[in-house]
Amino acid sequence: MIKTPLCDLLGIEHPILQGGMAWVSTPRLVAAVSEAGALGILGAGNAPPNLVLEYIRQVKQLTSKPYGVNFPMFSPYVQDIVDICARERVPVVTTGAGNPSAYIPVMKAAGIIVMPVVASAALAKRLARAGADGLIAEGGESGGHIGDVSTMALVPQVVDAVQIPVVAAGGLADGRGLAAALALGAVGIQMGTRFICTTECEVHFNYKDMIVKAGDRATITTGHSLGHPVRALRNPMTRKFEEMEKTGLSEAQLIEFGTGKLRLAVEGNVTEGSFMAGQSCGLINDILPAAELIQRILSQAEEMLVRLPQYVRGSEQASQSRNS
Ligand code: TUI
After folding, report:
1. What is the pTM of this model?
2. Cα(297) to centroid of ligand 1, in Å?
3. How far apart are CA 141 and CA 262, in angstroms?
4. Alpha-helical runs (H) found in the chain
5. Tens digits of per-residue pLDDT, 24-51?
6. pLDDT value at 57 more than 90
7. 97 touches ligand 1 (CB under 6 Å)
8. Is the pLDDT of residue 18 over 60?
9. Atom of ligand 1 nearest to the CA of 43
């Protein structure tokens, strides 16, 4: 049993969040994760508000346990989605790819627990002051839109910068990652890529299969010239995007080329899709039900945490050597 302050804050049994992934974390996966005692999170992405509302209602029909909604700050519908989350009494909101300070008061007034994703200690401090209930410190190993600090360096710096609970994300896919995150001062972990390879995730089999077959260096980041790097599995699409960035195409042309490519991935188009995934893909070797995955991660983390004290030399031995 691993219990942390995150379990109390969110009313969940296990300190594990399933990262919100646009077009990927749909109601079936979200409800399965929440039913298993962790926190399932809907990925709103750029989806229109009516679809997000429909998804929220579907989740509510499938589970009575806490769940979350995630939206990136570049969505053209941020205000509408905030209003929907408030009206629907969504238990938890996570945000990504920007600063949600302006929206925190209205969400908190509606009783929502707000946990923004941050990629720097500076933004962490600002959001703690703005009233965030907790933060998700996400390292650049993650999939999708990313920051440039690695998880190992970012998490303890965010933990030191704020006095609210911090969840670690980026590069985590198993129980060793959970144990390591707790050692860095985090109260839990968020995983995205690992949850794609579950039976309840509704993406095309090709997406899951590519992750299962991927090694540690299977991902690449593109979009640096746009100021918003994105990590995805290397494939003809990312190679073409890389070439286009090198040849100095305009921002508008690059954006036009990139638009809609995540949905193609979700539909299984292996050449034209953008298969967003994190570097943890090399750790993922199977597709299994979310509940089994969560149990496996918990037992592996427990085993690790029980085994680690053997590295601490006994106090008797230390005092013996001091006295000799
Ligand atoms: O949000 C993400 N990753 C995402 S959102 C997304 S949605 C989408 N994308 C393409 C097509 C269709 C839909 C895909 N991937 N991750 C959370 C995250 N946030 N990682 C890093 C950050 C971040 C970066 C900078 C958070 C805040 C930030 O602030 C900059 C500032 O304003 O100070």
Report:
1. 0.96
2. 26
3. 18
4. 5-10, 27-35, 49-62, 78-87, 104-109, 121-129, 151-161, 175-183, 193-196, 205-213, 236-246, 251-258, 261-266, 290-307, 315-323
5. 999 999 999 999 999 999 999 999 999 9
6. yes
7. yes
8. yes
9. 7
Element spanning 169, H or E: strand 166-169
Residue 22 Cβ inside 6 Å of ligand 1? The answer reads yes
> Does 316 have pLDDT greater than 80?
no
Contact 155, 130 (CB under 8 A): no
Are the C-beta atoms of 110 and 86 separated by less than 8 Å? yes
- Is the CB of 133 inside a 6 Å radius of any atom of ligand 1? no
Confidence of residue 320 (pLDDT cuts 50, 70, 90): low
- Cβ of residue 188 lying under 6 Å from some atom of ligand 1: no
- Please name the residues in contact with 119: beta carbons below 8 A apart, sequence gap of 6 or more: 137, 138, 139, 140, 146, 147, 148, 149, 154
For residue 73, the ligand 1 atom closest to its alpha carbon is 1
Exposed/middle/buried for 212, CB within 10 Å: 0-12, 13-18, 19+?
middle
Q: Is the CB of 110 under 6 A from ligand 1?
A: no
Q: Pick the residue whose CA is nearest to atom 11 on ligand 1.
A: 262
Output the residue whose Cα is nearest ligand 1's atom 9: 45
Q: How many whole angstroms separate alpha carbon 301 and alpha carbon 176?
A: 6
- Minimal-distance CA residue to ligand 1 atom 1: 96
Residue 68 backbone dihedrals phi, psi, to 5 degrees: -130, 165
Length of the chain: 324
User: What separation in Å is there between the alpha carbon of 45 and the centre of ligand 1?
Assistant: 10
